[in-house]
Amino acid sequence: MIEFGLVLGIPFLAALLLAVCGHSRRAPEINALCSLLTLAGAALLTVRVIGQGPLVLFEDHFFVDPLNVFLIALTALVGFTTALFSRPYMRVEQEYGRVSPNRMRLYHSMFQMFMCTMLVALSTNNLGILWVAMEAATLTTVLLVALYRTPASLEAAWKYFILCGVGIAQALFGTILIYFAAERVLGSEGGALLWTQLDAVKSDLEPTVLSLAFVFLFVGYGTKTGLVPLHNWLPDAHAEGPTPISAVLSGLLLNVALYAIIRCKVLVDGALENSFASNLMMAFGLLTVVVPAFYLSRQKDIKRLFGYSSIEHMGLITFAFGMGGPVANMAGLLHMTVHSLTKSAIFFAVGHAAQMAHTQVIDDIKGLLKVSPTVGWGLMLGALAILGMPPFGVFTSEFLILTTAIKHYPWATPVLLAALGVAFAAIFGKVQAMVFGRPVIKPLPYDPAPFPVFLHLGLVLMLGLWVPPYLAEWYRQAAKFIG
Amino acid sequence: MTFTALFTQLFALFLAALLAPALTGWVNQCRAWLQNRSAPPLLMPYYTLHKLFHKEVLLAHNASSLFRAAPYIVFSCMALAAAIVPTLSTDLAFSPAADAIALVGLFSLARVFIALAGMDVGTAFGSLGARREMLIGFLAEPALLMVFFAASLISQSTSLSTIVETLGQREFTIYPSLAFSAVAFAMVALAETARIPVDNPATHLELTMIHEAMILEYSGRHLALIEWAGSLKLFTYFCLGIALFFPVGISLAGTPLSIAQAGFFMTLKLAAGGFLLALVETLSAKMRIFRAPEFLGTAFMLAVLAMLVRLLLETGP
Amino acid sequence: MSILDWILIVIIPGWLLIGIIGIVFPYRPHLIYGLLFPSGAVLGVLLAVCALSGIVAAPQTRVLSLGLPDLPFHLRLDTLSSFFLFLLGAASTGISIYAGGYFRRGKGAIPGLLCLLYHVFLVSMVCVMLTDDGYAFMIAWETMALSSFFLVTSDHRIAEIRRAGYLYLLIAHIGAVGILLSFGLMAGNAGDYTFDAMRRFPEDGIWPAVAFLLALFGFGAKAGILPLHVWLPEAHPAAPSPVSAIMSGVMLKTAIYGLLRVSFDLLHAKYWWWGLLLLLIGLATAVFGVIFSAVQTDMKRLLAYSSIENIGIILTGIGLTLIFKSFALPHLAALALTATLYHCLNHAYFKSLLFLCTGTVLHATGERNLGRLGGLMRSMPRVAWLALVGMLAAAGLPPLNGFVSEWLMLQSFLFTSGLPQGYLHMLLPVSAAAFALVAALSGFAMVKFFGIIFLGQPREENLLHAHDAGRHELLGLLWFAVGCVLLGLFPNLVIAMLDPVTRLLLGSGLREAVAANGWWLLAPISQDRASYSAATFFVSLALFIPFVFVVVRRFFHGNLDLYGNVKRVPAWDCGFPSQTARMQDTAEGFSQPIRRVFSSFLRHTRQHPSPFDTNPVYRGSVEDPFWKWLYQPIVRLVEYGTNIVAFLQHGRIAIYLLYSFITLLALLMLTNG
Amino acid sequence: MIRSILGVLPEAGQIINLCAAIMLLLGFSMLAQRRILTLINLFLLQGIVLFVSILTVALSTGQNHLLWSAIITLALKVVALPWILHRLIRRLSVKWDVETLLNIPATMLVGIMLVIVAFNVATPISELSGTVLRSTIGIALACVLLSFLMMITRSKAVPQVIAFLAMENGLFFAATSATYGMPMVVELGIALDVMIGMVIFGVFFFQIRQQFDSLDIRQMERAREE
Prior knowledge:
The complex is a heterotetramer.
Chain A: H1 2-21, H2 27-52, E1 55-57, E2 62-64, H3 66-95, H4 101-123, H5 127-145, H6 151-186, H7 195-200, H8 207-225, H9 233-240, H10 243-272, H11 276-296, H12 302-323, H13 325-357, H14 368-371, H15 373-386, H16 393-408, H17 412-435, H18 450-465, H19 469-482
Helix pairs in contact in A: 1-2, 1-4, 2-3, 3-4, 3-10, 3-13, 3-18, 4-5, 4-10, 5-6, 5-10, 6-8, 6-9, 8-10, 9-10, 9-12, 10-12, 10-13, 11-12, 11-17, 12-13, 13-15, 13-16, 13-18, 13-19, 15-17, 15-18, 16-18
Chain B: H1 3-34, H2 44-54, E1 58-60, H3 65-84, H4 100-120, H5 124-155, H6 160-169, H7 176-192, H8 211-214, H9 220-245, H10 256-283, H11 292-313
Chain C: H1 3-24, H2 29-56, E1 60-68, E2 71-77, H3 79-102, H4 111-130, H5 134-152, H6 159-186, H7 195-199, H8 207-223, H9 232-238, H10 241-266, H11 272-295, H12 299-326, H13 330-365, H14 376-379, H15 381-394, H16 401-414, H17 422-454, H18 471-489, H19 491-506, H20 511-515, H21 534-557, E3 567-569, H22 587-590, H23 592-597, E4 603-607, E5 619-623, H24 625-648, H25 653-672
Antiparallel strand pairs in C: 1-2, 4-5
């Protein structure tokens, strides 16, 4: 209870606090401290859930079960490291005159608010509150993406806002339809939007309504996940926002949206007793793997490049969950974990690199290894990790996904193979050109923050070689749970 | 390894080394007759060798140790090759040590060294000769190997002694595959021993020479060894042809009497062969160097055909 | 402590420790090159010894509690892996010794980083041989690719090297995905990826063939078979020479190991057409490799193409083995496999030797271009004579090691009577002819390699003052040169060592046949059919040459002084008065016959100077035709794809909304209908 | 279980059906409308209809929280948002929205097809509901789709936002009329989000106009793959 309060309460209070003093000189430290406290809360919560089983709170509106507790922990962790990273990063931005103190206040406040909304979305039991939190997450990030107020950032934010707003409206319609179906079974007082209750009666829910509802929810949350062809906002938003925001967008928000889809899929699968939702997810997953792969090679902006890469990985995860079964589900969950860790690490490195070069244009960044070995190696190893090179954890999940795919859906593998190959060629070629070669850039006024990058990469490396037993147990439980 | 085998072996080796220049002399004599020239004496090559051995060695300034070692290596290779081929008897001490494939390897070892020696001094002609020699080599070598293979398909063995024994003991039957092989072998032999139409042993015209170009820088004892090795090579090829295609009279028993008989037959066959070679050389003209690949390619094809014919038409041993 | 324990407790941690010490003290060259690399070499010897005893020991297994939740790392040391570990240990010893001297003279890369990467590379190769499940294998496999990539790009400031590294890793990665998919197919249900589960993979239906083809693709990409070879001639020249040596000598063999493991051990090699496919690909690769090797003008590229050729030869051997096995001819299969494995070992030795020699030449002269080398026999004679050994071995000449394996291979081609398949029966002699052609052509390439670099006049001024190899380098070179000679002289011992391996994969071996003839005579079938005695051969040559020398000197000149005073004169050269180094054949000139004969294979472009040019320049280059016929179309296809998808991202928000709208409507109608 | 509402307020079903019909009509007229002021007024009307329908449901079922919903709707959709919009266009001095990306008759045709699709899709659901309100889900869906279409066809920022808000109206209508209201927490949350969203929109309008000198969203096509 207290832990849970910490997890949700600290970010919220921090958001209020930073709304007042977010422009002060010590604000980045406060931000990091609050994130650390949240992380501590999340850690305690995790320990407790592992020890005592699922937790239900606030009149059933919130609950913490194996599926979401690790996502909460992951979110808190990445939130904390991002806060650490944003400390030197935002100072440099301020030094460069790209953000004013007022904007710093907005940034810090909204960052914490964003964390809060995501934690709510992850921990809520109520599909309605889930929707509300998702929408709130959109709103906060819109403000963050538009932080620089440049034409490009405004354009990106506007597209993000409109596309995700419309998308999330579809999700609301889907939620209403679920409620409509559930009310006939549970009654309007019975908590017809509470996931635990829905889960209990899912086989009694009306299949036609639920399949329609799933279409709306899928399109809605899928927009936020970045599924092709609903993905168009994503590269713009990643490229134009401050880099810490790109990191959390890629590393966390997409996960949360996908989490929402998975929650809904469990219900729909229970009601439909056919593979409708699975097929839908596999089809869109495959499309989402292939199309971004082809975008990658033409990117000139480094953050846009990794934005597309995030889309691709979301496609892979969606495909994995679409295949279903214990192995593929576990692979999907693992891939969610390692992708958010790796991708945020990459964005940390990219952020520093772009600051050193005063540009995000790939061709103008060269010789990172020489100027700053930590940033250079971070970017290189991160890119190799995200491309599925062992011994990093991304490989583990890709290994499981691909082997499952060729066992059960061999027709899909040539597509995946082509996409992975093209993606590798594109990303690696560009990253290599940035990291290697003769330097054309200068070091930063503040030391870069290597800790977040290497912490993430270290964790990813660990997951590639050894999955700790309790984590494995969680993956197994959660995978079984998704079905 | 019996004592007789060892003795026969040493005797064969000695005989080969001794007779080889005579064969060269004989071919030159026949050629002169056919071309209406007055012939040099039969023992001319021996006089030449004697002269060269007594001359002083003049070395180019930048000739390396490899250059000086090469004649000895080449000569030894050729002598060993001559020893392996069952000319007089099939009961040879060396015969298990090297089969047909190893024989080809031995030839190419010698070739590689002489080519390297040709490149060593760093003159325009030396490297030109080396490259042409290697061109001939890489075409002739597989063709020769295929000839051996066709023969070994009959005898189910690559051991030269076994091949010759099998072919020598058989009743007279016509093997079409052997006919093909024989033609291929003749072509390869012409090329390998630096004869017209591929090379001209007598020329010193810069642009046409192959073998001579490589050994331009040699003089004195080195040149003598190389010349001798060339004679040995010619001799060995003759013996090979005889052993593979006309094995009549080769001693299978290994007794002194049969060896003497074999020696007699061999001399006859060599004489006839030398005359034939002179005839061929007289009747054909030297080809352009880039016709040589076609020439040898034909030989290669014929040898492969011989194998296929063997497999298609002649089942059973 | 069992052998596997020795490897796990001493060798792997030892190498890792060396690497870590290196990275902890990154800028201490004396420590790193004087102590760490030599100790790595000692561990290499230890590995070779362990592996030798592993070949005769029973298989040993271990399970490490690392890896996936349901799939800990399975390790297994059997005879096949022992053999390849022996190869690794033996080769790495020489290379480590050499590297200690070579890197000391290098500049650019951080010594400690090199030390770490090099030893991680070695460890990953050990792990590749030891792993017994798909996942751990892939981890080791890709770690190997990654560490070697960083080694290749250690001098990453040169754009060409970056490009080479990129191409290498790209093809390696795509190949790895192929292997991964193959494992996925063979894996048991519910994600059991151990090799044990894969051995139980059903043997009929289309899936074994698919798994085999995927594995062939994956391992072929690493080995450099046609048409996946393109990275090899780029990466080998780019890498520092010890790295080229270990990549060519050992890493390519890991692909062979993988192919043997999958096709024989896991899939049981039942179908003759697998063998035919391998045979044809192998021959094509070998012919292609050797022709291109002969026309190269960069010494390391020449060797790289020669590696492609040798991989082709090895693949041909595997193909023969598969054919014989599927037609139940165990003795012939054993002969072919022995020849294959023998050639793996030989190639590791002579190619490492040659690459290391190029390294020394490169350090002494700063040149890889054959057109600017020449005459080094005089300034660096020790390296030259050692290179001569390697070159003769690579050309497949007796009595060195290359000849033995080619001899065995030809024998197995030759005694193929009784294959029930008609076409195959006809095809094998033709293949033998192609094989013979390859062997002969490799001689051409090697003569060119040695002759242009070491013989003739120096083509540049500075070559006169090139310094010979240092102590460490020489020791490393000697290790391989002696190996080449010994492997050539004692084939029976090597074959006896290979016997357990062939028994594991085929159930038959050559030990009895070989043991019947004593150590000095190699007669794998029977003495009547074929025999070769390297020792006799060598001894007779070794006796005869001095004999001739003594006779000639004794009888004709009266002295035996080895460096007897001879008169030095200007070269004769048919009496041409002016001779410069430029008048020798260049590398291009030397390979002109090959270009003529095989002009249809090669894409040769030339630029001639005009007759009035005061400073005439001639340019010619031979391009790999696969770039034009295979890779460029693929690139164009991808570009086409990117143009199509770019059209989707049009920038206009209304269009984006339209996508959502259409998606929604389409899904709604789909659900409804 | 769905409670019968006819006992409490006999005409409630008719009223709600009527409201539904008016919603659809308003949706169409917004789609066809070029003038921005009229658009806002139509939006206001939609808000009123929504309010009436929620009120009807609230009264007829006696669910108190729906009364709250109704009040929020009134405050937000009838009073606050139109007022903000009016102020905005006055401050930004945009009066006209002459351009649509697709001409009006074609838009209408597409709109009719959308309605057919929406009804068709909703048929199986409506058959389940077993009340007289069977058509409301279909109509709500049609409203959502029509607003969606309107967002696609408008080239200026303000009408696009109005379309977005109209879409929310459709959703609200579905939530209250077809299901008799979502739980209170959810509705409050939704309302809050809409409110904040509107504020952000407002901020954006000024920023966009400052940066691009116009509210024409066709200016914002720079981030693209060329």
